[in-house]
Amino acid sequence: MSPDAAKSAPQGPPTPTPSARLASAHRPFARAVGMGLALLAAIAIIGPLISYRSDVSASRVQMQARLARESALYADALSLHVSLLQAELERVAQQPEVNLRDDTAAPEELLLRIAHQGSSLFTGGVALLDLQGQVIRSEPHGLFAANTALQRSPWFQRVLATRGSTVDVFSAGEETLAVAVPVRNEGVLLGLVQASHRLVPQLHDEGESLAVLGPTGNVLFPSSAPAWVRQGGMLERVQALAAGGEGEQWELAGTPVFAAANAVRGTPLWLLMIADQHAAIAPLRGRMRLQLLFIAVLQVATLLLFALSLRRIYRGFLAFEARVTQSEKLAALGTASSLIAHEVKNSLNGLGAAVSMLELGGDAATSVKTLRGQTNRLGHLARSLLAFGKPPVVHRVPVQLERVAQEAVDGLAALPERSEVQVTVHSAGPLRVQADPLMLVTAIDNLVRNAIEAAVGAKDLGRVSAPWVRVSAERDGRWGQVRVEDNAGGPPPGFEERLFEPFVTSKPKGIGLGLSMAHQALVDMGGKLAFERTAAGSCFTVRLELEP
Ligand SMILES: Nc1ncnc2c1ncn2[C@@H]1O[C@H](COP(=O)(O)OP(=O)(O)OP(=O)(O)O)[C@@H](O)[C@H]1O
Ligand SMILES: [Mg+2]
Questions:
Q1: Bridge partners of 484?
Q2: Which ligand 1 atom is the nearest neighbour of the CA of 512?
Q3: Cystine design at 401: which of 449, 480, 503, 505 (Cβ 3.0–4.6 Å)?
Q4: Is the shortest distance between the CB of 507 and ligand 1 below 6 Å?
């Protein structure tokens, strides 16, 4: 394959620049750090969320228990209050002055006035009724219009039927509580209490409400009770809830609530307490939001700090890397300079000696041979340095590996040492790979050249009597490979680890660029160059992926 043919071949995938290679090497690191940070953030958020959920369910249980306790407490208080009212009214009714049959009205009036004004128990007023429900006396006067008949009121009927005292709403839809007691078979003493006036406690907790239901499910308190309290079947629900003794979670008009109920002992009344679940959990939710916000701010700040310091470290790392590369370059340049100076000086000495020989009329043939040898040596130095300094431009095309190997061996036929070494080429079928033919043939050329030089050197030193070099092209799985083996005993001590470094040579006329360039060429083509020591000497293996 000629260099021209290679140049006119279609261009393969672009070779990444060193900086792009560096960036792609750092990308996985940045990705790993990012994933770690994201994981930390997720853990920091999931923690408060789990604790919020358990806090909410614990507080639900607590809220319900608290509501049940409060409901029982309020019901007991109301029951006590009503018993007190009943007892007071019964005491007045049993006074001998309260007599509807005598003609005197003054004692009754006085007692009624004391009952109404003397205490703050009957805020709505007090009245004496006859058995037909007609108002005989009332305090204050004109509490009812004249001829008002209350005999159809449920509480009035109940007092007559049971001949005992009763408590009920005065009339449906009112907040007035009626306490009625019989007056020795002659009438009924009625006391009225405004339910809103100290009878039922005012609730201050937001989202909590209290309702008092009468014996028929009528709402005694509050008059402005929401519609759901007046729904049909509410009394049965309340009675079932009170029987359970503990609170329940209800859904009222689409709102989840805690509910608790109790019977008001000694009365036909029922007390129902409701607490809005959302309002109860709102402080917890607020606290959780604050916690999450705090964590988020902390996380963002940590991330920022971390990113900033990472950037600083990363920049320092890059600067350090650049410095190392620079000093490596300088070191290589230093080695190269002294090597070039040494080579040029040796060649100049040789050239000077040959010219002097010619001037002195010495053997012209020897002088010309020396001149040619030294110019060849300087030419090799110049070509190697030029090729080493050039940036790699890779033109990958389909090539047959075994043919390139054969071409490289054939190209070395004119090498002076070649005749002293037995070079064999073995090929195992066509091995199609993608490669730059010129770069590949140069790389294999270097390997075979090194092997021949080493084998001749070993023969000269008397280490081997029959030096050989074996080149074999073969398949190894998905790889096509060319092995270059020799029986020269391997590289000298201390060279094995640095074989692929530039300007490393053990030869007096060597430059130390052959292996370094071959190695770089294989990497640039997506392949590999490996070395292994064998029993007889060295084995260099060129590997390229076979075409499917
Ligand atoms: N087949 C081999 N057997 C033993 N030593 C080897 C072999 N190939 C390479 N080496 C060692 O590796 C060194 C570097 O080889 P490389 O080809 O890079 O440079 P060089 O041959 O010394 O000089 P040049 O740049 O002219 O090729 C050689 O000097 C030699 O010591
Ligand atoms: Mg070499």
A1: 471, 540
A2: 19
A3: 480
A4: yes
The number of angstroms, rounded, from the C-alpha of 223 to the middle of its chain's C-alpha atoms is 54
Cis preceding linkage at 268, omega within 30: no
| Of 176-185, 200-209, 477-486, 516-525, minimum mean pLDDT range | 200-209
Confidence bin at 345 (pLDDT 50/70/90): confident
pLDDT of residue 264 exceeding 50, the answer is: yes
Give me the residue spans of the domains in the chain. 58-280, 392-545
Tens digit of each residue's pLDDT (9 = 90 or more) over 364-387: 887 887 788 778 767 877 877 777
CA distance 435 to 405: 13
DSSP state of 266: T
Burial of residue 326 (number of CB atoms within 10 Å: 0-12, 13-18, 19+): exposed
Which ligand has an atom closest to residue 518 CA? Answer: 1
Among 380, 515, 522, residue to substitute to test ligand 1 (most atoms within 8 Å of Cβ): 515
Give the helix/strand (H/E) hosting 396: none
Beta bridge partners of 538: 533
- Is the CB of residue 112 less than 8 Å from the CB of residue 138? yes
Whether residue 514 contacts residue 498, with contact meaning beta carbons closer than 8 Å, is answered with no
Instruction: Give CA–CA dist 473/482, Å, rounded.
Output: 4
For tokens 């080429």, what's the residue? Answer: 425
pLDDT, the chain, mean: 83
Cβ-based neighbour number of residue 190 at 10 Å = 28
Q: Are 225 and 179 in contact (CB under 8 A)?
A: no
d(CA 208, CA 258) in angstroms, rounded, equals 9
Which residues hold their Cβ within 5 A of ligand 2, which is an ion?
A: 450, 514
Task: Give the distance (Å) from ligand 1 centre to CA of residue 448.
Answer: 10
- The Cα 384–Cα 518 span in angstroms is 12
Do residues 441 and 408 make contact, with C-beta atoms less than 8 angstroms apart?
A: yes
Task: Please count the CA atoms within 13 angstroms of the CA of 468 that sit on its side-chain side.
Answer: 6
Residue 505, classed as helix, strand or coil, is coil
- Which secondary-structure segment (H or E) carries 426? strand 422-427
Q: For the chain, what's the residue count?
A: 548
What pLDDT digit, counting tens, does each position of 396-415 carry?
Answer: 999 999 999 999 999 888 77
Domain 392-545: CATH superfamily is Histidine kinase-like ATPase, C-terminal domain (3.30.565.10)
State which H helix or E strand residue 255 sits in: strand 255-263
Q: Cα–Cα distances in Å, from 290 out to 37, 84, 156, 294?
A: 22, 50, 59, 6
